[in-house]
């Protein structure tokens, strides 16, 4: 994939620079995006990687932190930035950005799901993850599917485990609550890693419940980035390019007046 570094003029001669909020998946903080963001910042876009409540450190309190707290943290950042933003969510972060898009549909120009997707009303991110009290530690590698671990070699596994922070149990176990059907109008990009996009489309055509919410979104594009479940570690440069391409398509659409 070739990186196209460019700016998009808007009325008055200034430039569209997109505000990009990056939401990590389970067990990770803002620093997990560090090798992904360079193409975005070089292109002039502003990035806002988040560390969500309870993920500040291994010693941080996690009791009482639930899915709504993580969604609210993203919404707070959307409101702080103001204007239109692009939300990027990896893995469980996909459900979190979808909840934020539901809360602020007029403020979200695009949701980019990295090996993730939207979570429907009443769904949970993963209540089968083994918890210890109020938290879910990173499970042993034997607890993952082979597809999760593609390209995650021994060095990367050691790095990941050394930086992993236990996830608040409530975020994994709580049910999603949604309220605004304008969320279906927010354009989406699916960056498919573990499963090819062709399989996702097959599931949609078959009416599979796993993709029921994705099937209701009006404008969805698919990008294939074959690797395991953690492309920010296994293919960070390629992931950065894929996000950049989606962001710059969004900027072009804004300039043309198609997304407000």
TrEMBL record:
Chain ranges of the AB hydrolase-1 domain: 20-239
Annotated signal sequence range: none
InterPro entries registered for this protein in UniProt: AB_hydrolase_1, AB_hydrolase_fold, Sec-Metab_Biosynth_Hydrolase
PANTHER family in alphabetical order: AB HYDROLASE-1 DOMAIN-CONTAINING PROTEIN-RELATED (PTHR37017), ESTERASE_LIPASE_THIOESTERASE DOMAIN-CONTAINING PROTEIN (PTHR37017:SF11)
Entry protein name: Esterase
């Amino acid at each position: 994939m070739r990186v196209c570094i460019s700016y998009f003029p808007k009325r008055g001669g200034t430039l569209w620079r997109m505000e990009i909020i990056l939401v990590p998946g389970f067990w990770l903080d803002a620093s997990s995006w560090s090798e992904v963001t360079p193409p975005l910042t070089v292109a002039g876009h502003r990035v806002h990687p988040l560390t969500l409540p309870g993920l500040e450190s291994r010693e941080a309190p996690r009791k009482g932190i639930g899915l709504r707290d993580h969604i609210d943290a993203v919404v707070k950042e959307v409101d702080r930035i103001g204007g239109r933003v692009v939300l990027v969510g990896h893995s469980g972060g996909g459900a979190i950005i979808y909840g934020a898009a539901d809360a602020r549909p007029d403020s979200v120009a695009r949701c980019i799901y990295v090996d993730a997707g939207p979570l429907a009303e009443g769904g949970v991110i993963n209540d089968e993850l083994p918890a210890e009290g109020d938290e879910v530690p990173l499970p042993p590698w034997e607890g993952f599917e082979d597809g999760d671990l593609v390209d995650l070699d021994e060095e990367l596994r050691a790095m990941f485990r050394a930086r992993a922070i236990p996830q608040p149990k409530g975020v994994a176990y709580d049910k999603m609550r949604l309220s605004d059907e304008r969320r279906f109008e927010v354009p989406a990009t699916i960056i498919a890693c573990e499963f090819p996009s062709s399989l996702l489309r097959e599931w949609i055509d078959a009416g599979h419940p796993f993709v029921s919410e994705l099937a209701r979104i009006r404008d969805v594009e698919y990008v294939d980035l074959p690797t395991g479940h953690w492309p920010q570690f296994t293919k960070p440069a390629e992931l950065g390019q894929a996000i950049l391409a989606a962001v710059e398509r969004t900027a072009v659409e804004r300039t043309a007046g198609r997304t407000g």
